[in-house]
Amino acid sequence: MSYTIYIKNQERAKSPIDKKQVENWVDELVNWLFDINQEYNNYRFFQNKEKLIHIQLQDILAKVVDDTDEILVYSNYFFDQIEHLHYVLNNDLETIVNFDPAAKSKEEVLIAYPGFFAITAYRIANIFWKLGIPIIPRIISEYVHSRTGIDIHPGAEIGENFFIDHGTGIVIGETTKIGNNVKIYQGVTLGALSVSKENVSVKRHPTLEDNVTIYANATILGGNTIIGANSIIGGNVWITQSIPQNSLVYHKSEIEIKKKSDFPEPLNYVI
């Protein structure tokens, strides 16, 4: 019995990728990008750390890419993008500090904000996704999901100055397109109306144009659904059709308030 399992595993993967190695590499890269542990004030140390992270990436790529030349091309390409990546992430960081009244400093956001970590890891994973490298971007996105409760598919297209507030329970699907200066609160789903395998190459998830705000627990579905620029989507709404620019969409609920004395027994339920 165990030999059969062994043979099946060998058929599936000649050299299985080390998930923990990818996760550790992401942490090292984020620390290096933003000097989170303040170890890099010595430039020589900073350079040596960059070389080590570069070598570690090549080792990871070797598990999923057979051609040695491609490994070098992919790793070099990633580090060619690193200054632009840092620039875009710095804009995301500035956006959070400027618009979240609870954020007291950049250091606080870097160390303690799960939303910024999720955005950072997404932007890293998205580079690998665009290169067509298998598995690695999904491992990165699921690592973030397990740490933060934020699930961003690495194939999504997300513009600059992206702001996730709180973040727990956010789901952003593969073909989602998000413009610039967009803010999303916890529990938001940007999902698909259909999960059929035949639609794998079709745009299944919504588009958010520039300057859109989506409040908590809103659900927006469908590849043809476009949320127009400068719109505000209130909490708990369910949207499957496009919304014009400069719109305010909200769900109206009724709340009753009564005196506790109106009830013959206290509302003290035990489940």
Automatic annotation (TrEMBL):
State the species of origin: Flavobacterium paronense
What's in the keyword line of the UniProt record? Acyltransferase, Amino-acid biosynthesis, Transferase
Under Gene3D superfamilies, the record lists: Hexapeptide repeat proteins, serine acetyltransferase, domain 1
What is the protein named?
Serine O-acetyltransferase EpsC
Position of the signal peptide: none
Tell me yes or no: is Transferase among this UniProt entry's keywords: yes
Q: Which superkingdom is the protein from?
A: Bacteria
InterPro entries in UniProt: LbH_SAT, Ser_AcTrfase_N_sf, Serine_acetyltransferase, Trimer_LpxA-like_sf
